[in-house]
Every structure is written in structure tokens, then in C-alpha cells.
Amino acid sequence: MPAIIRQPKEKDLMHLTRYAIEFPQPSNLKNNEWMRERKFWAADRLLDDDDVKKLLIAESGGKMVGYIYGVIHEQKDGEIQEIYVDEFYRREGIGTCLYQALVDWMSEEGTEVVNLSAPVGSEKIEKLMTSLGFKPVGKVYQKYL
Hints:
This protein is an alpha+beta fold. It has one domain: Gcn5-related N-acetyltransferase (GNAT) (Aminopeptidase). Helix content is about 35%, strand content about 25%. The protein contains four helices and five strands, in the order E-H-H-E-E-E-H-E-H. A hairpin with a 4-residue loop joins strand 3 and strand 4. Pfam families: Acetyltransf_1 (PF00583). It comes from Halobacillus shinanisalinarum.
């Protein structure tokens, strides 16, 4: 196994925040707004103790190198909201390990289907998800007001 997949610890906040900021940014936010939002996002996810939400950390050589965050909705469908692996550690199977650990948890909770929405133009994530058996089922359109 290329990395250890584990529950988050307080010591992960710095790396989680940095990775959360590096996550692809929506075009409607300015950089300083995005950074502020993502700092709060990281802290909220690290401290979240909700039974239907899960943050998992990938660790290699004692260092956090990635994360995955998912939720289970009331209809018992799972959603992968974010997956991120440090650029230096990509193409080593870490994203696949993160995905499998999250899906194992979702399956244990009775989830029968898992969804993921990828930003337009994110070929790398689309390639990973296709390799894991995901199939495109539609498009999402969005308008900021």
C-alpha cells in the first residue's frame, strides 16, 4: 500500500488547509475570498464529528499527502465531495486507496450508489473516476447570482 489511510488528527490542520486552498477554485471567487473560505472549510472538516460525513487522510513517511471527504445523504446515496493528493505523490495509487477507504465506509453504512461531481476541464479526476468504474450520468449547469 503506497500510503496509510487514517482518521484526521489535529496535527493535520496545516497540511489540510494548504491542500484545501490548492483545490480547484470556482471562477466566481476572488483569491482572498477563496483562501478565507478554504481555511474555515479545513478547520470545520477536521473538527466535524457528524456520523454521515467522513474525512480521511493519506499519510506517507509520517507526512500528510492527501485527503478525501464524503457524505451520505438521507436517501443513502454517497457523495465524494473532494479528493486531493499532493502533486509530488500523484500516480502512486494514493487517490485509489483514499477512494476505496471512503467507499468501504459508505458501504458499511448501507450506501448503494456513490456520486462525484468534477469541475469542467478536470481531466485527471475524470480519468481516475473512470478507472474506478464511475460512469458519467449527466451534466450540471450553474449560474451565480
